[in-house]
Structure formats: C-alpha cells, structure tokens
Amino acid sequence: MEYLNAFLCGGILCAIGQILIDRTKLTPARILTSYVVAGVALSAFGLYEPLVQWGGAGATVPLTGFGHALAKGVVKATGEQGWLGVFTGGLSATAGGITAAVVFGVVMAILFKPGNKR
C-alpha cells in the first residue's frame, strides 16, 4: 500500500504541474519555484507533514518536498540557534540533496558532452 500511496501522491503533484504547463502561460521555472514555495507554506501551516506520512517518497521527492525540508530545517535551527537558524537551517537540512545534484550533474556533463540544441 505504501508504494501505491507514493505513486498516487507523486503522480498527483506531477499532474498538477503538467496542467499548469499546458493551461497557463507560466514558465516551467516559475512552476518549479512555486512548488518549492508551496512546500514551505504548507509546512508552515502544518499541512505537509500529514501528506508526507501518507505519501512517503511521493511527497518528499518532488520539489514540494524540498520546500518542506527547507522549512523543517529552519524550524529546527531556530530552536537551537535562535535567529541565526533562519539563515543556516534550510541549507544545513538540504545540503546532502544539493551536493548530490551538483555532483551527479558534473558526472553527467563529463560522461555526455553537453551542448546547445539546434
């Protein structure tokens, strides 16, 4: 059942993004940014954690999950460090994911010669 919930949760989030691409004039970059902000906002109101409990990886892997991780990191760091945690918490909570994205991007650029499409 966990796999089905993850599939449904992630699929619904992706379907919403596709509908936004098809039906609005929003650029993909603005939609992606909106997903991160939505993850932070839903976390701030306590609405994203129940979604994570239900959807598992279907809720944590998409960009809304990245926003949720940022918000959780800030909350934890502000509890430990005060106002300084506002600036450091999000980055410390997501440093592993950001590092993995950069490293895998470099490896792919080495393996496959990137270039402009014509």
Order of secondary-structure elements: HHHHHH
Radius of gyration: 16 Å
Shape: globular
Instruction: Report the span from N to C terminus.
Output: 45 Å
Mean pLDDT: 91
> What is the count of structural domains?
1
Number of helices, counting only DSSP H or I runs of 4 residues or more: 6
Sheet bearing the most strands, described? none
Q: Portion of residues in helices?
A: over 70%
Specify the structural class: mainly alpha
State the total count of DSSP E strands. 0
Strand content: under 5%
Which segments are poorly predicted (pLDDT under 50) over 5 or more consecutive residues?
A: none
What's the structural blueprint in terms of helices and strands?
Blueprint: H1 2-23, H2 28-44, H3 48-55, H4 57-60, H5 63-81, H6 84-111
Helix pairs in contact: 2-5, 5-6
Structural features, described:
With 118 residues, the chain is mainly alpha-helical. It has one domain (2-111). The protein is 83% helix and 0% strand. The protein has six helices and no strands. The chain has helices at residues 2-23, 28-44, 48-55, 57-60, 63-81, 84-111. α2 (28-44) crosses α5 and α5 runs antiparallel to α6. The radius of gyration is 16 Å and the shape is globular. The termini are far apart.
How would you concisely characterize the structure shown here?
With 118 residues, the chain is mainly α. The chain has helices at 2-23, 28-44, 48-55, 57-60, 63-81, 84-111. The termini are far apart.
